[in-house]
Design a protein that fits this description.
139 residues, STAS domain-containing protein, 4 helices, five-stranded mixed β-sheet, single chain, two-stranded parallel sheet, globular, alpha/beta, Transcription Regulator spoIIAA
Length: 139
C-alpha cells in the first residue's frame, strides 16, 4: 500500500471509526436498518473455470448486502461447482434473513441450482412464459 493511500486510510479511520458510518449504528436486516441490494448480470455460459471469480464476487456481496439479484437472462449455469458457489452465497444471505434472487433462469439453470440445494428465489422477468412469478427453490 502506498504511503498516500495509507495516510488517507488513517485519516478516514480517524474521522469515521470502523463499524460506524458517521456516528450511525451498524444497520442491516438484523437491526431493522436499510436494505442494500446488489445486482450481477453475467453473460454467456458460466462454467467451472469462472467459479472462483464468481465466488469472490458473491461472497463479498452476500456479506455486505441484504439482497443479491443474479440476473441470468443472458447467462446459463450447468456446472455443479458454480451452482455450489451460488448456493453458498444464498445460504450466507439466508442466515442473515436476506435473499439471493435469480431472475430469468432457464430450466437447465434452475435444475442445476436445485440439484446443488441452493436456497434461491426464482423470478421470471415481466412478460416471460407461464411460470409462476415467484418460486422459492429449496433443493
Amino acid at each position: 500500500m502506498s504511503a498516500v493511500v495509507a495516510d488517507r486510510r488513517t485519516n478516514v479511520e480517524k474521522a469515521v471509526p470502523p463499524g460506524s458510518a458517521a456516528g450511525c449504528p451498524p444497520a442491516g436486516v438484523e437491526s431493522g436498518g436499510a436494505w442494500l441490494t446488489a445486482s450481477i448480470r453475467p453473460v454467456g455460459q458460466i462454467c467451472r473455470c469462472d467459479a472462483d471469480r464468481l465466488a469472490i464476487m458473491l461472497d463479498a456481496l452476500a456479506g455486505a448486502s441484504s439482497v443479491v439479484v443474479l440476473d441470468l437472462q443472458a447467462a446459463r449455469i450447468e456446472s455443479a461447482r458454480v451452482a455450489r458457489v451460488v448456493g453458498r452465497a444464498a445460504a450466507l444471505l439466508d442466515e442473515r434473513d436476506g435473499c439471493l434472487l435469480c431472475v430469468g433462469a432457464d430450466d437447465t439453470t434452475r435444475a442445476c441450482l436445485e440439484r446443488a440445494g441452493a436456497v434461491v428465489a426464482f423470478v421470471d422477468p415481466l412478460g416471460a412464459g407461464a411460470r409462476a412469478p415467484l418460486q422459492i427453490g429449496v433443493g
